[in-house]
Amino acid sequence: MTMKLFLPLVILAGALFAGAASADVRIKDIASFEGVRENQLVGYGLVVGLNGTGDRLRNSPFTEKSIEGMLERLGVGNLSDDQMKTENTAAVMVTAMLPPFARRGSTIDVVVSSLGDAGSLRGGTLIVTPLSGADGEIYAVAQGPIAVAGFAAQGLNASVTEGVPTVARIENGATVENEIDFELASLKSVRLALRVPDFTTATRVEDAINQALGGRWARALDPTTIEVEFAEKADLPDLMAAIEVLEVRPDSVAKVVIDARSGTIVIGADVRIAQVAVSQGGLTVIVREDISVSQPKPISIGNTVVVPKTTVEVREKEAKFTVLEGDVSLQRLVDGLNAIGVGATETISILQAIKAAGALHAYLEII
């Protein structure tokens, strides 16, 4: 299959995507302030009001125990196992992300996921569910009607399912009841953590902050961390806001990423190769089976038999050499691969062979 090049640097025929050169980006897009982050919350609860699509109590004993415990807390007790036959309740796990500086009374979104064998959560209502953090403390309480994106329908001999009806969301479904202590005013310095560690990017962030604030405010501690010290009585929110909008040009390691399952190749803008000559070719073997029938002549004794006929054909693809110049840019590398006229699978083999020959000056990652 011949690969064709379409701007901007996206080869659709071979599923080859080439990234553009890096540009200036804001610090807030490549780094985050240490301590200013979200926290995961989780809880276990019950969804009620389902239209016969809840857990089957025989297969989900934890749902039955949860219903019994809930009814006992509400003053309803002394229920035997044979009396518990509801199909309108489902046990669920409730998860949420607690944003930084969340205050009491604010609301957050929650995700509700079925824990048992419920067929669908559509139409259900989550009852009061405490949400805990990793330290075991309760930080929010969730409750409310849930919204399901998928649906499921079933008849006697057929069924149809669209999306995932056992996962739902509740917008603003949890109320924050406890705050995480974090005071900016008590800090004498803050640290920026790069999402992709790199010495060059860290020093560029350091230089950008020092140039903008005037002086030696920032220093890179390692490839990931940049520490910024402040003077006494400094307005930290204003200074942090001024820092995160500064623009720098991030650097990265030259890399070629290959997804062999889908045939996707991503080539970084800094990838370079030494001068090599590449030839790609191969054999194609075609085996065809034809079936013919042999019948006896009229007025004769004999049997009709099936006679298989096998045809084997070998086709050899003409191999052509293409020279890829040394220290080429990304554009010329892509043009050189296109000149060979190969598909995504052959391109993956070529890149691996160039790497084995020591001519690919980049990190080759196969996922």
TrEMBL record:
UniProt keyword Flavoprotein, yes or no: no
Subcellular location(s) of the protein: Bacterial flagellum basal body
Keyword Magnesium on entry: no
Main location: other
Any single GO BP term: bacterial-type flagellum-dependent cell motility
Signal peptide per UniProt: 1-23
One GO cellular component term: bacterial-type flagellum basal body, distal rod, P ring
Record key words, sorted: Bacterial flagellum, Cell projection, Cilium, Flagellum, Periplasm, Signal
Record-level Gene Ontology MF annotations: structural molecule activity
Chain's role: Assembles around the rod to form the L-ring and probably protects the motor/basal body from shearing forces during rotation.
Quaternary structure note: The basal body constitutes a major portion of the flagellar organelle and consists of four rings (L,P,S, and M) mounted on a central rod.
Family label: Belongs to the FlgI family.
Name by which UniProt lists this protein: Flagellar P-ring protein
